[in-house]
Amino acid sequence: MATKDISREKSAQLFEKAKNYFPGGVNSPVRAFKSVYGSPLFIERGDGSRLWDADNNEFIDFCCSWGPLILGHNNPEIREAVQAQLGKGLSFGAPTRLENELADLILTHNKYIEKIRFVSSGTEAVMSAIRLARGYTNRSKIVKFEGCYHGHSDSLLVKAGSGLVTFGETSSAGVPKAFADETIVIALNDKEALEKVFSDFKDQIATVIIEGIPANNGLLIQDKEYIQFLRKITKDNGALLIFDEVITGFRLGFEGAAKYYDIQPDILTYGKIIGGGMPVGAYGASSEIMSNISPDGNVYQAGTLSGNPVAMAAGIAALRILSQPGFYEKLEQTTQAFVNEIQSFITEKQLDVKIFTVGSIFWFAFATSERIQRADQIDPNSMLYYKKMHRELLNRGIYFGPSGYEVGFISAAHTEADLATALAAIKDSLLIAFEA
Ligand SMILES: *Cc1c(COP(=O)(O)O)cnc(C)c1O
Hints:
Blueprint: H1 9-21, E1 43-47, E2 50-53, E3 58-61, H2 76-86, H3 97-108, E4 115-119, H4 122-137, E5 141-145, E6 158-159, E7 166-167, E8 169-170, H5 177-180, E9 183-186, H6 191-200, E10 205-211, H7 224-236, E11 240-244, H8 256-261, E12 267-270, E13 281-285, H9 287-290, H10 309-322, H11 327-349, E14 353-358, E15 361-366, H12 383-395, E16 398-399, E17 408-409, H13 416-433
Parallel strand pairs: 3-16, 5-9, 5-10, 10-11, 11-12
Antiparallel strand pairs: 1-2, 2-3, 4-13, 6-8, 7-9, 12-13, 14-15, 15-17
Helix pairs in contact: 2-10, 3-10, 6-7, 11-13, 12-13
This protein binds pyridoxal-5'-phosphate (PLP).
């Protein structure tokens, strides 16, 4: 276990080198540690709940590759399935039995979709689902919510402008204003805003997209009644409802947030866990809606490496384990017990922080006692507490995602002992974060 004055020399050297190769030294921005102290740890290997960095420091990992690793690192069944496939070739650009197998595993355990299409990332799944919704409805406007992340396609890199209902403003340079004009952004948990959108843009809205349970900007658990309202208003107006379940799919169970709310969305998107750690995304819907996808229909979508056999093999091995009875119940109980212990410590010490949880996801909300359901309820200044806690946790061998807006994940590889170790470190770190 790492001690207080661990060396991060090798990681620091690797990061200096990486800056010569990549913008910001990374291949995905949040990895750059811009929101926390220090520079990124370069990871050498992972096993079970543990990570080892280039300086051979050991960490208990609660980032879990941002969600995919629900079985922890280097799971033996996934590893063996991948190794077995490696001997047969890496890609064929032709169908394989493995695609059928993964689809069968998913579709027999998920009553919300009848047909599925595999892609290679969450971004690609969502981008394709939006195109499908537009093609199906023959409308072009989409509605998204402030505080939901749906990957980095142009239509979705849009944030709210000012006012209750406005056209979005691009949240990235390089996104044409004309794209942002097709995306309307509103606050979560606001029925009035939804009603206004559908009256202002009558018969123009192709789809409303929401993260099943928003978990990319804090954990913003919505009320069932609000989601039911969202379902009804979309249906009444001939717009499709997309649940982006790239995080919640296979995290809350095979039927994800759709089952959690008991709501039938029109299109669902998946990613992260579905590939067992390999790059896989997917979108699914009723057979009728999916029949609009090429080659059956006129909505084009393709991929050279889609349904990649090695990735499929990893996904099959992972989902076989996840489909065993009691898997999710146990993981959720473990998480709930862990979170309860943290919460009682917080209460005992009267710390100004609240911990939100669903399934095996948890999130610390600092400087609030409110139930947070909208992005604008999160005070950016409260992130300083997370930043301090993050530093203390790293020094105690606990790896959390390098941003206070990111949630933490518990995997089936986290043992009681791991969680007891983490709990002690979290208690110490929280106290230090609140020191003046
Ligand atoms: C991670 C995520 C995405 C993007 O997936 P990538 O694989 O990173 O492209 C999209 N939507 C949600 C809800 C996500 O959590």
